[in-house]
Amino acid sequence: MTGQPLLDECRASGECPSIQNIPSWADYMKLLTPSIEHLPAYVAALQMGWSPDNLRAEAAQEQIASIEKDAASFVSNLDDPTAKAGPIILPDGSKVPRLPSIRRWIWDDEFCGHISFRWMPGTEELPPTCSGHIGYAVVPWRQREGLASAALVAILPEAKAVGLSHVTITTSPQNPSSVRVIEKAGGMLIRTFTADSALGGHEKLEFRVLLGS
Ligand SMILES: CC(C)(COP(=O)(O)OP(=O)(O)OC[C@H]1O[C@@H](n2cnc3c(N)ncnc32)[C@H](O)[C@@H]1OP(=O)(O)O)[C@@H](O)C(=O)NCCC(=O)NCCS
């Protein structure tokens, strides 16, 4: 079970307290599995200059080129629980093996952003070159509507479904809106640390969100 049915079950069980904070996210926001049907709206956001990679602005143009080459493969590789899509390019240009991941498009009448969840099977640990289990971004013209907050709470059941007891989410101390999004999902600050040099070596905050028993 995934997506809305899983969310409904977790809400009904009362085991994920943070889910109760947003009583009706589905009324105004949906998480869609990337599809060819919705790809034009995604491309429009890229063409307006939105980058799907918070650390690499050039990812927008790279993705437009990939879509022009093979749209079906592009879409299929976005949602990648078997890590088939090949290595990840880090901000310093180095490459690391891809972790299993899922990606969802945040949708409210239009493409609004995306959220991804990646994990190492069988453990809550992550390699130092992975900046947390969950990453998200909302297009600038739809920010401050509660969309990232709703999307984060809505994707937590997926992490629980692969057996994790908690997720780690990292952000910059200079990103107060992201900090707020994490706190609203129940995130507890664990530590301040310096990110791996391949990720830019910036100061980061690490939060933990418990997923319930
Ligand atoms: C971070 C980001 C995803 C937030 O998306 P969003 O949909 O605007 O977030 P929400 O509307 O759900 O919530 C934003 C919260 O931050 C608060 N906020 C916004 N700007 C703020 C600021 N300068 N100082 C403090 N709080 C701020 C909002 O008031 C809101 O909190 P509230 O609901 O308690 O009022 C979005 O700004 C973004 O895409 N940024 C670029 C990518 C990024 O930084 N991703 C996160 C990487 S870890």
Could you characterize the architecture of this molecule?
The model has no long low-confidence stretch (mean pLDDT 90). The protein contains six helices and nine strands; from the N terminus they run αβαααβββββαβαββ. It has helices at 3-13, 39-47, 59-69, 71-78, 147-161, 176-184; strands at 30-32, 88-89, 95-96, 101-107, 111-118, 134-138, 166-171, 188-194, 203-210. Strand 8 and strand 9 (203-210) form a beta hairpin. With 213 residues, it is an alpha+beta fold. The relative contact order is 0.16. It has a four-stranded antiparallel sheet with strand order 1-4-5-6, sandwiched between helices. Strands 7-9-8 form a three-stranded antiparallel sheet. Helix content is 30%, strand content 23%. It has one domain: Gcn5-related N-acetyltransferase (GNAT) (Aminopeptidase), CATH 3.40.630. Helix 1 packs across helix 5 and helix 3 crosses helix 4. The two termini are 17 Å apart. Coenzyme A (COA) binds at residues 54, 135-138, 143-149, 171, 175-178, 180-181.
CATH fold field value:
Aminopeptidase
Biggest sheet overview:
4 strands, antiparallel
| Span between termini | 17 Å
Protein structure class: alpha+beta
At the fourth level of CATH, the homologous superfamily is Gcn5-related N-acetyltransferase (GNAT)
Small molecules held by this entry:
coenzyme A
- Please report the number of helical segments: 6
